[in-house]
Design a protein that fits this description.
Layout (H helix, E strand, L loop, with lengths): L1 H32 L12 E2 L5 E2 L2 H4 L3 E5 L1 H8 L8 E3 L5 H4 L3 H7 L3 E5 L12 H19 L4 E5 L6 H6 L6 H15 L2 E3 L22 H11 L5
Parallel strand pairs: 3-4, 3-5, 5-6, 6-7
Antiparallel strand pairs: 1-2
């Protein structure tokens, strides 16, 4: 009987030991799956008192608001600017942006930068450019009414890569659409900035994999081009 009890104790001890080792192994695996390693700061970024990264552009454009579609949304998605300085979203057109007037007025920006059109030129209507510019005119009028002291600047629609244009031929209309935006800016007495100098070297390394959207370094170039517009 004594031998049986001793054997049971040994078996129990071995079982407990196995469980402890198994738990320790699981703990190691969890640590590997969720490594708590500090990420290095991107070039030009600083860490605030809470350890969060801050773009140097955030102070320059702290009183600005960037309105647009998913391309403009990249400013906050890539943490170049804070979300409060960006009012943009995928599929946004000049018509849909009219729904954001109250939100925009509530943020009370001193400068408004607008970049819409990448989705507008794909709109299923007989003349998407004309339809878009009509809504663009309404949008600017609403901005002036709600925020009469704000400085308004229209940005040209960014080009796409040759491959993206091949897949969606309507992107060939970007140049004509940008000419329409330039004329609209003159008509409405607002600013206009041609973004083509950013792409003057013909390099595609700014683009994301779809050839339409952009990597973070594009947004640094964009804000470098625009910082003189901020008073």
């Amino acid at each position: 009987m004594k031998k049986i009890i001793t054997t049971k104790k040994i078996a129990t001890t071995l079982l407990i030991g196995s469980c402890v080792l198994a738990l320790a192994a699981c703990g190691d695996k969890s640590a590997n799956l969720n490594p708590q390693q500090p990420a290095s700061l991107a070039q030009g970024q600083t860490a605030d008192s809470k350890g969060l990264t801050e773009s140097p552009y955030q102070s320059i454009f702290q009183d600005s608001l960037f309105v647009g579609d998913s391309i403009m949304e990249g400013l906050s998605f890539h943490d170049v600017l804070k979300e409060k300085n960006v009012l943009a979203g995928a599929g946004k057109t000049a018509e849909f942006a009219l729904e954001d007037i109250d939100e925009l007025a509530g943020r009370n920006p001193k400068q408004i930068f607008i970049q819409l059109g990448s989705d507008d030129i794909l709109w299923p209507t007989d003349n998407p450019e004309e339809y878009s510019l009509q809504n663009y005119t309404k949008l600017i009028g609403a901005f002036k009414e709600k925020l009469p002291q704000a400085q308004i600047t229209i940005l040209s629609v960014t080009p796409v890569t040759a491959e993206a244009e091949k897949q969606e031929p309507r992107y060939k209309n970007i140049s004509d659409y940008n000419q329409g935006l330039k004329e609209l800016a003159e008509q409405e007495n607002v600013g206009f900035v041609d973004l083509s100098p950013i792409f003057s070297d013909g390099s595609d390394d700014l683009y994301d994999s779809d050839g339409i959207h952009f990597k973070p370094k594009y947004y640094n170039k964009l804000l470098d081009l625009l910082k003189d517009q901020v008073k």
